[in-house]
Design a protein that fits this description.
The chain has one domain: Helix Hairpins, CATH 1.10.287. It has 113 residues and is mainly alpha-helical. The chain is built from three helices and no strands. It is elongated. Keywords: Membrane, Transmembrane, Transmembrane helix. This is Potassium channel domain-containing protein.
Length: 113
């Protein structure tokens, strides 16, 4: 590896952060959409209640409405597991540019074995 690698200038870094934030937001919107449609069609909730339930599960707050059918309970279970993975993935995607920049600032890539 080259030892004279420079870190990105602030403007390019801001552009990279914006790109990764955009990816994170898209992942959250798609995941929220899956939850809203699932709660609406499988859980037989109204659109607002579906959005509320999906948002609460996706952010880790927990379920709001009781699921009455077995299919709805199964959907809610799988969506909760899915949401946990999405939440952690979103955090990782969003903070990746910051971690990368920190590694460059600390010159972690210069350490030889």
């Amino acid at each position: 590896m080259k030892k004279n690698k420079n870190i990105l200038p602030p403007k390019a870094f801001a552009k990279r952060v914006s790109k990764y934030a955009f990816y994170s937001i898209i992942l959250l919107i798609i995941s929220l959409g899956i939850g809203v449609f699932g709660y609406h069609f499988v859980g037989a909730l109204g659109w607002i209640d579906s959005l509320y339930n999906a948002s609460m599960i996706l952010t880790g707050m927990g379920p709001v409405n009781e699921m009455k059918t077995e299919a709805a309970k199964l959907f809610a279970s799988f969506y909760a597991l899915f949401s946990g993975v999405v939440f952690l993935s979103t955090v990782a995607i969003f903070f990746a540019p910051f971690a990368h920049r920190l590694m460059h600032l600390l010159r972690i890539d210069d350490i030889e074995d």
